[in-house]
Amino acid sequence: MSPRLKILHIISSWQSVVGNELAEFAPRLAQDEFEVEMCVLANSTISKTPHTPTTTLGLRWAFDISTYFGVGRIIRRFRPDVIHTWDNTAQLYAAFHPGKHRIIAEKREPEAKTGILQKYANDRTHCFIAPRRIDDCPKTIAIPPAAVPAAYAQPIPATELLAKLEIPLVEPSGDYYPVLQSRYEPERRNYKPVQPHSTPFLICIALPLCSEHRILDALWTFETLNQLRMNFHAFIIGDGKDRELLLRYRDRWKLFSRVHFLGNQCDAYKLLPSCDVLLHLSSSAAHSGTILSAMSCGVPVVALETPESREHIVDGTTGMLIPCDGDFRFYRRISAKKLLYLLENVELRRAMHDAAKERVAKEYNFDAAVQERIRLYKSMS
To answer: Edge-to-edge strands of the sheet including 232-237?
Structure first.
């Protein structure tokens, strides 16, 4: 009987979509073929792989010398055949430790870094890149991104979901000015006021509360919907350093009855199927898997146009893309317009629901990605 192949997975933190993918991928490695161990660089109060040996290191800065030596101790003790790094930080810490092991780097960035440390890491690393190939890196194997399978809850009506979350309903007041009309004119005086929708629309955002994810721009979009007297509720799932600042802006714009910060305690998989739209204004490649999660349960996505969102979304078919050219006022205005158009067009949302689920099942199959990684492990032994 041949010895088991030792695989060491290194990830910077569980608080990411990549963490969900690793948590789903690790248990699928056969125990009679692979010996698996985890290394999490940042401190975490949760463990997504309780049955796999996991070491958590206290990463404090971008390059922490104590974390560097901690990774070295794990490598010398475990003596892995393959080190699988799941983000740029993990790749950097693994590449500087010499040994007979082979390193795989799973990257979500559209282009290779040009810094000296990153170039050295790329030279030491066999990369498979999702979703885009890096030309500067030798022996590159391209593997497309995969949608993480999850036990999604069954969709429930908006009123029941709000009652379950203990969120009071807000009675719409005044006339509503829709954008979707046969003769659309940009001036408010040409709108035809109608009665607002009796059932509220549900909008979801699942991102950390940081400035780079443009949560403030999303609040501006919600303020526009509120000015138009649209009946909606927005759920923001996640936490971060800008939480207090965003809460102040929400209260200043009088959105406390419409926008709800649910924190990390709420599971996105339980809310997504009941939502009408996922709003994703982040340009970060590390959180692009949220788009696939929404598409898996048939929720249309309005996302900022990035290389990753263009890879996932067919504009007008499985979702809508917001051009990121111009200043913040431009894409704030465009995001509000596209969100309004999608919410008002019921037939378009139904068509996107079916098209998104079909595209994920066909092109982002998680089982195929698991088998591709296993074949890569065996080829490197």
So the answer is: 259-263, 232-237, 201-206, 277-280, 301-304, 319-322
Do 226 and 269 fall within a single domain? yes
Q: What is the dihedral of CA 232, 221, 209, 266, to 10 degrees?
A: 10
Which residues does 339 contact at the CB level (< 8 Å), separation at least 6? 203, 221, 225, 277, 279, 302
Q: How many domains does the chain have?
A: 2
CA 263, 266, 268: angle at the middle one, nearest 5? 110
Residue 152 domain flag? no
Q: What pLDDT band is residue 27 in, cutting at 50, 70 and 90?
A: confident
**Nearest to 91, CA basis, from 102, 77, 104, 82:** 104
- Classify residue 90 by its DSSP letter: H
**Distance between CA 262 and CA 259 in Å, rounded?**
10
In terms of phi and psi (left: phi > 0; alpha: psi -120 to 50; beta: otherwise), the region of 28 is alpha
Query: How far apart are the C-alpha atoms of 288 and 277, rounded to whole Å?
Result: 16
- Token output for 103: 């390193």
The Cα 204–Cα 208 span in angstroms is 13
List pLDDT tens digits, range 107-150: 654 444 445 555 555 555 555 544 333 343 334 445 566 777 77
Question: Is the torsion defined by CA of 154, 160, 164, 165 positive or negative?
Answer: positive
pTM of the predicted structure, to 2 decimals: 0.75
- Domain span at residue 357 reads 158-363
- Residue pair 79/8 in contact (Cβ under 8 Å)? The answer is no
DSSP structure class, residue 234: E
Q: Give the 3-state secondary structure percentages of the chain, helix then strand then coil, rounded to 5.
A: 40, 15, 45
Q: Tell whether 95 and 206 lie within a shared domain.
A: no
Find the CATH number of the domain harbouring 341: 3.40.50.2000
Q: Give the span between the Cα atoms of 73 and 60, in whole angstroms.
A: 18
